[in-house]
Amino acid sequence: MVIIDKINGVIWGPIMLTLLIGTGIFLSAKIGFLQFGKFGYMLKKTILGVFSKEQHEKDTSGVSPFQAVATAMAGTIGTGSIAGLATAIMSGGPGAVFWMWVSALLGMITKYSEIVLSLKFREKNEKGEWVGGPMYYIKNGLNLKWLAAIFAVLAMAACLGIGNTTQSNSIAIALESTAGVAPWITGVVLTAIAAAVILGGMRRIASVNEKLVPFMAVFYVVCSLIALVINFDKIPAAFALIFKEAFNFKAAAGGGAGYGIMLAMHYGFSRGVFSNEAGLGSAPIAHAASSTKDPARQGLWGMFEVFFTTIVICTLSALVILTSGIWSEGNFQGAALSIASFNSIIPGVGGAIVTLSTIFFALSTILGWAYYGEVCAGFLTNKSKTAVLLYRCVYVLVVFVGAVGNLDVIWGISEALNGLMAIPNLIGILGLHKVVKTATKEHFGK
Asked: Is 132 left (phi over 0), alpha (psi -120 to 50) or beta?
């Protein structure tokens, strides 16, 4: 943990924060602050038009736009919205929530750009299906094959962390906290479920997530709103605490001036990226499988993903935790803190709500990230079927490792891998921003 903490201190230090913030500001300026100016349009073309025919059209070359979104959302709405948010508050203070919001507002345009590029530079595999992602637009757009390979290797490793072990670990903790289920039992069951879906490939993963994601999102939002209605009078104080601690320059534990705000920014941005994946380059891999021919239209779904997962889901989670008061006792971490918070507001039922949500969120993330890893494996081995199958098998087995592993170590490694895979991806986005700008103009007709 000492080594991991030092690595994360460098990766998620001033350089990474500057790169993430700078990329978001740069892209916003170049593309006309699309996330603000076209916010209503984005909602109309995404969630408000979810039942339109165009969102469910597909052909033999890919899954439907909505199935691609569901798979990406499955990978995005994971334990980062519950356990990740909780660890951000405990490690960086309530102020970390504010910096998660900032990361989301800037990340909306970053993720939009990633998805536009992933559709612009995607290729077809031997089955005639679309495959894409940062490694493809770095290779085909920037002609930097070595950098594309580095991203693919880092992404494969990150899939085993952020998309796999952290998720199964959170499920195991939730079930042990509320039902006394031994982690190894959870690991065996999760491994069996993952194998049944993942070994069937992208179409089976997309089919399952298309049904699972909408249900789990609505369930968690409704339950969170019920808890906040009960604690309605405490919500203003919770918001005040978030804003106050976000700019707290008071030294912590004898540290130097500015330590408080830097800690809040560190955990706010790192956990913010964990929750919405903007800048990582993961979700574009799922979106590239869409049968849609308009990159910008699919990119709008990326903007919605970031808004919904961080601004909506994480804010609801944060308010439940802060209004409960449990967080200030310092007796809980990760999903256990969310469970205790819900339980204190809705005794007897709250723990079950978070446990069910954690299971749904984490399971869908495990399925979504499995596809990301296999596409990276295919890229590195010239789309070898054997390599893809081998990666699927390894990925399924690692689900068990996460369930019985150590929480701090798993989260620490995942945080490091997130930062490392973001670097080549952000280089690709910045280098190809003109392509994104052109595609945006073509879509909006100006």
From this structure: beta
Question: Per-residue pLDDT tens for 267-290?
Answer: 888 778 777 888 888 889 988 988
Three-state DSSP class for residue 124: strand
Distance CA(149)–CA(136), nearest Å, equals: 9
Give the pair of three-digit tokens for residue 32: 């006309």
Run of H or E residues at 279? none
List of residues 6+ apart from 63 with CB closer than 8 A:
71, 202, 203, 206, 289, 290, 291
Residue 240 structure tokens? 């005040």
Is residue 91 packed enough to be buried (19+ CB in 10 Å), middle (13-18) or exposed (0-12)?
middle
In whole angstroms, give the CA distance from residue 292 to residue 56: 10
Contact in structure between 282 and 75 (CB atoms under 8 Å): yes
How far are the Cα atoms of 58, 104, 112 from residue 109, in angstroms, in the given order?
26, 9, 5
Residue 148 and residue 317 in contact, taking contact as beta carbons nearer than 8 Å: no
Contact 53, 280 (CB under 8 A): no
327-346 exposure pattern, b = at least 16 Cβ within 10 A, e = fewer: beeeebbbbbbbbbbbbbbb
Burial code of 366-380, b = ≥16 C-beta within 10 A, e = fewer? Answer: bbbbbbbbbbbbbbb
pTM comes to: 0.86
Domains of the chain, CATH where assigned: 2-50+57-444 (1.20.1740.10)
| Residue 382 DSSP one-character state | T
**How large is the average pLDDT for residues 335-346?**
86
